[in-house]
């Protein structure tokens, strides 16, 4: 369950269109999952990905950082804020791990495996391997950012990855969702409908 947090739901600081539609299929899938991992975007105040940190810059623009281009966002998922909380309807009671990412002031992390500097590791790959888990069923927000990067890094780590198409939604800036789906398909990410699991 990737980043199903208030700020990414309708009315939130970085609302994903129709974002709350993922909650029902996710909850149904979670009942069948042998193990549940939840991620939470968890930024300090003044995080480098916030446009407000960069004078003259607007949300949805970008800046160059030492590790590459960084997209700029409205302030979102600030540690301890209501917007950073998991969606109230999300059924997380079976989760074995709640992984917080994007916690370094100067480094973003869309991926649940590897931060945007492509060097700092979250520990998730080792966690999954130590538990003998080989196949990830990806759900949550947003298809074109945190889902995309998490899926690609999972493939690079050798995991099988299944994207549940009705349990994800995207931000979709300039066609980024269709590009993300294409990129994931090329990386060997399988795509299914939740009914295929939740039969
Ligand atoms: C996300 C933009 C900024 C996401 C997180 O969860 O997809 N997108 N931070
Ligand atoms: Zn973020």
From TrEMBL:
List each copy of the Isochorismatase-like domain by range.
1-193
Q: Quick one: signal sequence residues?
A: none
Query: What EC number(s) are associated with this protein in UniProt?
Result: 3.5.1.19
Root EC class: hydrolase
Keywords (A to Z) from UniProt: Hydrolase, Metal-binding, Pyridine nucleotide biosynthesis
Cite the Gene3D superfamilies for this sequence. Answer: Isochorismatase-like
Q: Which domain of life is it from?
A: Bacteria
Q: In which pathway does it act?
A: Cofactor biosynthesis; nicotinate biosynthesis; nicotinate from nicotinamide: step 1/1
Q: Which PANTHER family match?
A: LD05707P, PYRAZINAMIDASE/NICOTINAMIDASE
Indicate the family of this protein: Belongs to the isochorismatase family.
This chain belongs to the protein called nicotinamidase
Q: Which organism is it from?
A: Methylobacterium brachythecii
Instruction: Please spell out the taxonomic lineage of the organism that makes this protein.
Output: Bacteria, Pseudomonadati, Pseudomonadota, Alphaproteobacteria, Hyphomicrobiales
